[in-house]
Structure formats: structure tokens, C-alpha cells
């Protein structure tokens, strides 16, 4: 089977790794019943990571003809006689609209249907979110027949809940095991305390009489002594006086004095190590923050793409939270009124910044820091901004609720941010309870 590069712009690249089979068509039937059969439509759809029904429906929409894909037999038919070149050109248009990333041109994208019934393409290479033109006829078909999500949000929620339950069960089992261990150790110690005195009396009173009268070889006395030895817990005295005695017994007087001097010197030197060093004056965090913001702004003015700007910011010195705070402030500097709209407009920068686990919480704390620093206009629209990121699948319910609870119970519990966020968080929790 002959293969070609995905995307017309990459047709001359001999080393391009994304390939698909060349289209093979066959005209079937006669008269009014004539049809064009795309023989290898299933193989093409697999290479594009799209359902074969999408490409077949797209041909029908563009040609104004009826089209049908049979899931059982895997056959794709379009009414009418159409040349292979014409259908291949329509397939290229489909790839540009519904497969390739609008930012980097990479075909490794995933179709995401947002909560507002909008279609976006999420790029696995650069993280860019491409907004598909919803005026196209195929968009209604895609919304009615959504693709199977490999890592859907519902599956993620179920996995997280199962993980939380597993951790809770593990903690409960650990606590029970600790209680059992404590009870067993208490029983052992009580037995040793109660049984230590009678064994001593048996040794004193019956070691000579019982051992000599009952058994001439003293086997019974040996058994008593062996039983007593089992109850004895041998320990090494680690005190300084015992150490001195052992040293003096084992070594001669000269070496003993040398060892004693060395141990005394070590003991005298320990308090000196424990002495706290004078604390150096702390560096001014605000100066470092402003410097980092200025550096990111300078790079942003050069016209860097979202992924390049985020990479530059992460390479700078500072903790992940400091870098995220500086990046967010550099992107939205000076914005007060219209903060939510600006967040929606620059969501690609945010998408590039929250690729790894734990970065959603960093982003939410950066939003909090930005709102605290800026004027009240941004604080008024903080709930709308967070909802815009939630609708774009850049934030999840668990992260938003955790951030809200952290703020309400923390040092900034009286802040206006949490009062404005409260209705949105309550809506999230009620929606999650309905799903359960």
C-alpha cells in the first residue's frame, strides 16, 4: 500500500513521520444508483485518528450528495461518480480544519467538545487549543456523534475517586494494624513483669533441692534456667560510664587515655556544631518578582509563541509558584476591567502552562495573587475568568474546589475573591453530586 505525508504542506518532506495511505476509490452501480466507494477509508481514518464517519459525512456535505458509512462492513459510499483527485482535495481540506493544529501544524490533535458545545482541537505537541469554525455543516454531526475520548474527564473523575477511597481504606487499615501492635506489646510487657519474680524464687529455692532430688543430672534445673533465659531481654549499656569501663578493661592505660580524650573532645565539639549561625538578611522577594516579570515581558514583546514563552519562563530561577505568578502577571499586566474576556482570548498561553500535574493549583494561586495585587475590577470578574478556563477544559472541578477551600480556611479567608467565587463553587459541587 502506498503512503503519503499527512497535510499538503508536508508533501515534499521525505522524513515526515506522520503518514496515511493514498486514497483508493471505486465507482459502483449505474444510472441513478451510481456511487463512489472509498475502498480504504477505514485505514485513512485510523491514520488521521478520526472516525471514518466524519470524513464520509464531510464528503457528502461538500459535494451536496448523500453519503453513508457502514460500521459493520466498513464501507464508505458517496452518491454520484467522483474522481479520486477531487475526493483527495476534499480530504486535504478536512485535514486542515479538523486534524492539523492551527498553531504548529502537527496532526497529532484530539477533538474536544466543550461544555458550551464548541469544538476545539487540543494539540499533544504544543498544547495549542484550536477553535473550529462552528459555521461548518460537519460540526453539528460531530456534536451529535462525539468521538470516543481515550482519557475522558468522567474516567479521570472515577479514577480519582477510586484512588481517594483506596487511600482512605489504606489509612484505616494502617491505624487498625497500629492498634493491634500496641495491644500485643502491652500484653507482652505485662506478662514479663508478672512472670519475672516467680522465676527468680524458683531459681533461689529450688535450684539445689529440686535439681539434685528429682533428677541426678540436674535436667529439671536446666529446663527452669532455659525457660528463665528466654524471658531475659539482653541489652547493651550505651551510657558514657559503661563505655569508659569497657575501654579501660579492653585497652591498656595509655590507649584508654587516648580514646577517652578523643571522646571528650567529640562531646565538647558537639555543642559548637549545634550553635546557630547568624541568619543572613533575607533577599527582597518583591524585587526578584518584578525582575522576573520584566524579563518575561521583554520576551513576550519579541512575538514568541505561547509554548516558547512558557518554556522561557520555566527556565528562570525561582520556585514553580513564583514563576507561574510572574508569567500570569506578565501576560495580563494592567488588565482590570474585561479581565475574563482577556483570559478567554489568551487561553492558549494558559494551556501551555498547565501541561503537567499540579500546575492547575499553581495557576489558580497565580490568579489569586494577581487579583490581590491589581485593582478591584479583576476581583469582580475572577469567577467569570475561572469559569472560562473551566469551560475550556483547562481547569477541573477538584482543583477549583480545593483552591477555594484552601483560601476560605487560610489567611485570606475574608478576601472578596472567595465571596465572588462562592456561587460558582457551589454550582460545581451541586453538579458533581447530581452526576454521582
TrEMBL record:
GO biological process: formation of cytoplasmic translation initiation complex
Superkingdom of origin: Eukaryota
Composition-biased stretches (Basic residues): 179-189
Feature: compositional bias, Basic and acidic residues: 147-178, 267-280
PROSITE patterns cross-referenced by the UniProt entry: W2 (PS51363)
Record's GO cellular component terms: cytosol
Alphabetically ordered keywords of this record: GTP-binding, Initiation factor, Nucleotide-binding, Protein biosynthesis
Region (Disordered) residue spans: 143-227, 263-288
InterPro entries linked: ARM-type_fold, IF2/IF5, Transl_init_fac_IF2/IF5_dom, Transl_init_fac_IF2/IF5_N, Transl_init_fac_IF2/IF5_Zn-bd, W2_domain
Gene Ontology terms, MF aspect: eukaryotic initiation factor eIF2 binding; GDP-dissociation inhibitor activity; GTP binding; translation initiation factor activity
SMART domains to which the protein is assigned, alphabetical: eIF2B_5 (SM00653), eIF5C (SM00515)
SUPFAM superfamilies tied to this protein: ARM repeat, Translation initiation factor 2 beta, aIF2beta, N-terminal domain, Zinc-binding domain of translation initiation factor 2 beta
Domain annotation W2: ranges: 276-436
Family, per entry: Belongs to the eIF-2-beta/eIF-5 family.
Entry function: Catalyzes the hydrolysis of GTP bound to the 40S ribosomal initiation complex (40S.mRNA.Met-tRNA[F].eIF-2.GTP) with the subsequent joining of a 60S ribosomal subunit resulting in the release of eIF-2 and the guanine nucleotide. The subsequent joining of a 60S ribosomal subunit results in the formation of a functional 80S initiation complex (80S.mRNA.Met-tRNA[F]).
Protein name: Eukaryotic translation initiation factor 5-2
Organism expressing this protein natively: Platanthera zijinensis
Amino acid at each position: 500500500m502506498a503512503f503519503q505525508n499527512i497535510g499538503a504542506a508536508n508533501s515534499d518532506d521525505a522524513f515526515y513521520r506522520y503518514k496515511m495511505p493514498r486514497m483508493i476509490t471505486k465507482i459502483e452501480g449505474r444510472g441513478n444508483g451510481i456511487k463512489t466507494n472509498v475502498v480504504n477509508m477505514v485505514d485513512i481514518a485510523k491514520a488521521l485518528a478520526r472516525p471514518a464517519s466524519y470524513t464520509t459525512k464531510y464528503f457528502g456535505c461538500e459535494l451536496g450528495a448523500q453519503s453513508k458509512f457502514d460500521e459493520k462492513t466498513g464501507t464508505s459510499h458517496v452518491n454520484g461518480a467522483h474522481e479520486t483527485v477531487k475526493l483527495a482535495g476534499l480530504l486535504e481540506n478536512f485535514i486542515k480544519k479538523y486534524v492539523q493544529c492551527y498553531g504548529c501544524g502537527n496532526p497529532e490533535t484530539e477533538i474536544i467538545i466543550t461544555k458550551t458545545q464548541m469544538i476545539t482541537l487540543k494539540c499533544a505537541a504544543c498544547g495549542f487549543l484550536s477553535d473550529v469554525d462552528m459555521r461548518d455543516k460537519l460540526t453539528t454531526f460531530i456534536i451529535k456523534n462525539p468521538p470516543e475520548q481515550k482519557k475522558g474527564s468522567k474516567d479521570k473523575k472515577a479514577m480519582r475517586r477510586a484512588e481517594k477511597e483506596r487511600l482512605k481504606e489504606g489509612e484505616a487499615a494502617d491505624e487498625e494494624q497500629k492498634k493491634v501492635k500496641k495491644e500485643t506489646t502491652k500484653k507482652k510487657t505485662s506478662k514479663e513483669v508478672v512472670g519475672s519474680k516467680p522465676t527468680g524464687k524458683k531459681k533461689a529455692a529450688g535450684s539445689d533441692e529440686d535439681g539434685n532430688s528429682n533428677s541426678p543430672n540436674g535436667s529439671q534445673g536446666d529446663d527452669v534456667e532455659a525457660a528463665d533465659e528466654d524471658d531475659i531481654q539482653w541489652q547493651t549499656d550505651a551510657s558514657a560510664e559503661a563505655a569508659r569501663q569497657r575501654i579501660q578493661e579492653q585497652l591498656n592505660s595509655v590507649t584508654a587515655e587516648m580514646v577517652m580524650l578523643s571522646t571528650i573532645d567529640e562531646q565538647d565539639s558537639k555543642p559548637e556544631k549545634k550553635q546557630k549561625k547568624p541568619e543572613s538578611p533575607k533577599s527582597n522577594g518583591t524585587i526578584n518578582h518584578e525582575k522576573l516579570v520584566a524579563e518575561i515581558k521583554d520576551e513576550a514583546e519579541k512575538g514568541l509563541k505561547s509554548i516558547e514563552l512558557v518554556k522561557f519562563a520555566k527556565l528562570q530561577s525561582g520556585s514553580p509558584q513564583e514563576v507561574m505568578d510572574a508569567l500570569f502577571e506578565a501576560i495580563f499586566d494592567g488588565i482590570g476591567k474585561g479581565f475574563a474576556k482577556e483570559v478567554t482570548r489568551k487561553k492558549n498561553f494558559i494551556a501551555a502552562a498547565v501541561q503537567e500535574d499540579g500546575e492547575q493549583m499553581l495557576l489558580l494561586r497565580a490568579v489569586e495573587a494577581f487579583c490581590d495585587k491589581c485593582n478591584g475590577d479583576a476581583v469582580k470578574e475572577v469567577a467569570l475568568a475561572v469559569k472560562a478556563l473551566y469551560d475550556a477544559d483547562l481547569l477541573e472541578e477538584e482543583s477549583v474546589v480545593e483552591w477555594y477551600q484552601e483560601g476560605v480556611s487560610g489567611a485570606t479567608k475574608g478576601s472578596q475573591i472567595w465571596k465572588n467565587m462562592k456561587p460558582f463553587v457551589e454550582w460545581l459541587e451541586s453538579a458533581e453530586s447530581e452526576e454521582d
